[in-house]
Amino acid sequence: MELTNEQKVLESIVKKAWDDPVFKDDLIKSPVATIENFLEHPIHLPEGKTIAFVDQSNSSTIFFNIPAEPDMDDMELNEEQLDIISGGDGNTPPIIVSVTNYTQKIFSGS
Fold it and tell me: Which of 25, 35, 62, 81 stands 20 to 30 A from 92 (CA)?
């Protein structure tokens, strides 16, 4: 599978952050300026949007990402989600949150 230009740029940014702790620190503190300096040209960030990089390279920390709350009024639902909502119980579709760097069970009692 051929990577898109966006994927290639992100890959090169991540590799540079792995190799250069100063770059990684700059990326976390000032992502737009750091990326523009790295690419040697401005990036096109949509109005009202920001970029955030989080260092998840510390293997002694288990990272969870809190996703954005879904906007149910402006969402296309798949068949399973439609079935859940059409049941009339008022519940929203399940929220799937995964850990980024750990595969063992954390919250089970055993």
Answer: 62
